[in-house]
Amino acid sequence: MAATEARGNTRELVLDAALASFGTAGYDGTSLDDLAAGLGIRKQTILYHFVSKRRLLDAVVDRCAGELVAALERALAQSRAGDSGDWERVEAMVREVFRLALDQPVLLGLLREVSRPNSPGAVRVRSHLEPLMARARRWMEDEMAAGRMRRTDAQLLLLSAYSTVVGVATEIEVLRAAGVGPTLRPVVQRRGELLRFLRRSLDPAART
Amino acid sequence: MAATEARGNTRELVLDAALASFGTAGYDGTSLDDLAAGLGIRKQTILYHFVSKRRLLDAVVDRCAGELVAALERALAQSRAGDSGDWERVEAMVREVFRLALDQPVLLGLLREVSRPNSPGAVRVRSHLEPLMARARRWMEDEMAAGRMRRTDAQLLLLSAYSTVVGVATEIEVLRAAGVGPTLRPVVQRRGELLRFLRRSLDPAART
DNA sequence: CAGCCTCCTTACCAGATGGTAGAGAGTAGG
DNA sequence: CCTACTCTCTACCATCTGGTAAGGAGGCTG
What we know:
Two copies of one chain form a homodimer. By secondary structure, the first copy, chain A, is mostly helical.
């Protein structure tokens, strides 16, 4: 018992620290001992809550994916409220994702770590993202069929957008490594590029 | 003595395997034992040639950086031979880098691994890239001063281009993870985006 | 042959890692 | 008061890690 504050939220604190560590040091580069030491607790406390390191990663991924889904759901609901066109809806989603990423840069770190081919978290992330992707894809294909969207390869477009977001993570880190200070501008630029790319690909009213 | 083929090139074989493993499994995720086992040799043979795991990574990075520099030097020489304008020269360099990346996708894996914040190889890569970047930056700033290039933040532009290349690495992996087959098209697309971006930023003759 | 050098090996180790077993402390309910 | 449950701890372990020490086999040179 730490006797300090933080009574029942050890679990959450561990998740926070794990998210940060997995995102920066990577899964292999994160040791439970170090993680615990950073929190002033013992490694076994972590294992009590999460059973194994692997499951801890899963829990971190689950929580983050939950936040992402919630954010997207919110953006979708809002853009549905106003009778927006397809393009406005797409833009709202993209902006929401970037907002989430800028609010919590650690999320990007995890995303990048987990996008690595042999990452233990990759399958878990996939299981969360796949339904989202499939849903988005179906929607896009319906809109295309209805002539409200320009015809294009929906899956490839979605994956490209996804990679762009992951790429933002690396860009932020590259910039920080190079000693460039506030990283807002390039991120906003990437967002602009992505939006332009999507618009060009999807919006029937956009110039080719 | 393996008694098989491969006499004096054990060193190169180790470098090849290490490049692949560092690029996919990461530095921490690569064990010397596994690396050696994959080559049918003993871990100590690796250590004989490279002294330590860290130095092995350095050697891998050095070799890759050497290839990159050579490729860029070649592209530069060629574009100097013809009396190309600035923009043609920039384009030649970009195309050369992408060509190298497509020829040897493993290079991208390493680049991504080593672009991670706390990566042991990060400093080594920086020491290779910094002179290149500084040189490019000086050149660009000269051209800007002479009015042959549009004025912009040279460093930010270079870092952005760099991130784009690293981003290509993640994109390829994302696509492969999603089961999308030949990854040529999206890569070419990224190259096109980068070239367009650079042209817009640099070429005085380009449309805004 | 002797000596040296290169290359790869076996033998071994200290430290870190993820994980197990079980006890202690606090709290709630009967 | 006793029991049961939750949470954290100490103690311990098997395994894997990068790394050291030393030896053997082959080739070159004196």
